[in-house]
Amino acid sequence: MPHSPHKKDKDGTRPSMKIRSASPRAAVTPAPPEPPAPSAPPAPPRVAAGSAGNGVANPSDGYSDHGRHRAGRVTYQPKAAAMLTTHARTEDERLLDTGARPDFRDSDPWRSLRILAEFVEGFDALASIGKAVTIFGSARIGEGDPYYAKARKLAGLLAKDGFAVITGGGPGIMEAANRGCHDAGGLSIGCNIELPHEQAINRYVDLGVEFRYFFARKMMFVKYADGFAIFPGGFGTLDELFESLTLIQTGKIKHFPVVLVGADYWSGLLGWLRTEAVARGAIEIADLDLLQCTDDMDEACRMLTAGVTERAREVDEPVRTRGRTGAHR
Questions:
Q1: Which tens digits make up the pLDDT trace of 16-27?
Q2: Cα–Cα distances in Å, from 104 out to 92, 94, 109, 115?
Q3: Residues 6+ apart with CB under 8 A from 247
Q4: Is the entire prediction scored with pTM above 0.85?
Q5: Are 172 and 140 in contact (CB under 8 A)?
Q6: Domain boundaries along the sequence of the chain
Q7: Distance of alpha carbon 318 from its chain centroid, rounded?
């Protein structure tokens, strides 16, 4: 049944539309409006299921960034932008700004490019050197020291066996090894490092590569070598020794002989490893077999070149196995 129309007063208006006259009493001043209740702080961005759990909202899932700004893979709050000025402006603004600003070459992003360049240049220079052995030792050992003569002899033997010799390119044992390889007609390589006292590449280096960063240089020592010969040396030599042992122990490199030259010099360290590191369970007794020690350079040469023979046998074995399998098909 249809609704009946609202009744109207005599003046033709609805009751609700009438404006009542003000009361003869004094008007009461209305109370000021209460301030709005403080809003709760925004909830942290939700992390989408299956994300890496980095606490950053995934815009593709429709979650709010809560005022966060994005610059590539980085998101940041205005507070962070004020505290860390790296992302305070867009890349275009920084690129087009002609005002004074810090030297961009001192920034970490630019530094990462320099690091990458060192790896690229090192890989490019050393990729085709073939078989090689890296020889380490003190830069403070002079030409009159017996170990200088031993390093020179060992490098010459390796060169005659077709091995290139890699060193740090500096003086002392490094110079002796480069000299022995160079004089024997082998490829003498020096990976020099920028130091405060300016270490120059010795004159017996045929192929030299300069590095700013130790870790990039150390990568070349390991990647392009088939073994390490460790002569008496200081912290740098010990660093290379234990890094190579760690890589072998953890299976990162295989069939990589590490030969200590100088039984008298290394006997104290080897004794400490047995009586302390092994006794306390820090290493296994079998880990000491990763090291070989000798004073005979002919024996050292045989030890160092054995790794290449073993590696070649390991590579060749699957090929022979596949050949025999295919013959029975």
A1: 444 444 444 444
A2: 15, 11, 9, 15
A3: 222, 253, 256
A4: no
A5: yes
A6: 115-318
A7: 33
